[in-house]
Amino acid sequence: MLNNFSNSQRAQVLAEALPYIRQYNGKVIVVKYGGNAMVNEELKQQVMEDIVLLHLIGVKIVLVHGGGPEISDLMKRLGMEPKFVDGLRVTDKETVDLVQMVLAGKVNKTLVNLLEMQGGKAMGISGMDGRLIEASPKDPRLGFVGNIDHVNIDPVTDLLEKGYIPVVSTVGCDDKGNTYNINGDTAAAYIASALHAERLIMMTDIAGILLDKNDPTTLIPELTVSEAKKLFDTGVISGGMIPKVKCCVDAVEHGVDNVIIMDGCVPHSILMELLTNEGAGTMVKKD
User: What H or E segment, with its residue span, contains residue 224?
Assistant: First the structure.
């Protein structure tokens, strides 16, 4: 990041970051990670570097991840056709076993390994561990896709207290032993709310909330919950952004100070948001 800077410029960057380091030291930041930033290996490496850097300066990072592309890829290799209803994966019994295998296994442990290789101290858990995410069926059409009924946050807080970066895969369970596929944005919002996090960062494939979805120059830097709700009514927030922004609103209304929707494909976007005046994406905050 600083390779092209002179020593004095590097020192200036670090000096300007100091107030933000003070602000976030000891605070909980939840990062929802997925999309193209997760598929691109170079970007994935940068995101892990940024998370470890924040961890080393005293920020308590919780990484909540998805893995939709990896699930679809495995299904296709096994001759299974992925199906979606209203943007959610139809998850029968065979598919939910694959979801658990990919998310709680391959993806989760890969991210833990990358964080450890960067000098972090990470521990991977799923929503089933310690009954972190208790769920029930969302819609009969979707099979084992779950609504979150309750979050038992102790497994996450225990890891934070011991100095780990918790890496959470979004599968849940019920008291009958069923496993559920949980939407990653929803899980991140619930976990951030249960932690009363300082901030929830939603890494997406677009710059943030746009007044004109086809014009990136119409990015809205920040808006309140009330203003966000008006954008639903006017149709500015539409399509796949509706559930994402609803998760942001829910998180703020349930104890998270503010939520950032940002483009995870921009290198070092997390550091830009947390440690510079420039920021990144759209901030949703309390009225």
Answer: strand 222-224
The set of catalytic residues is 32, 35, 68, 185, 244
For residue 36, pLDDT beyond 80:
no
Q: Which residues contact 59 (CB under 8 A, 6 or more apart)?
A: 24, 25, 26, 27, 29, 274
pTM for this model (two decimals): 0.91
- HSE-CB at 268 with a 13 A cutoff on CA atoms is 9
Q: What angle do CA 127, 150, 52 make, to 5 degrees?
A: 40
Phi, psi of 93 (to 5 degrees): -60, -40
The domains of the chain, with CATH numbers, are: 26-285 (3.40.1160.10)
How far is the C-alpha of 160 from the C-alpha of 234, rounded, in Å?
Answer: 41
Strand pairing partners for 84? 89
Orientation angle between helical segments 241-253 and 184-195, nearest 10 degrees: 10
Name residue 135's amino acid. Answer: A
Q: d(Cα 6, Cα 146) in Å, to the nearest integer? A: 51
Tens of pLDDT along 53-65? 999 999 999 999 9
User: What six digits make up the tokens of 30?
Assistant: 């939840």
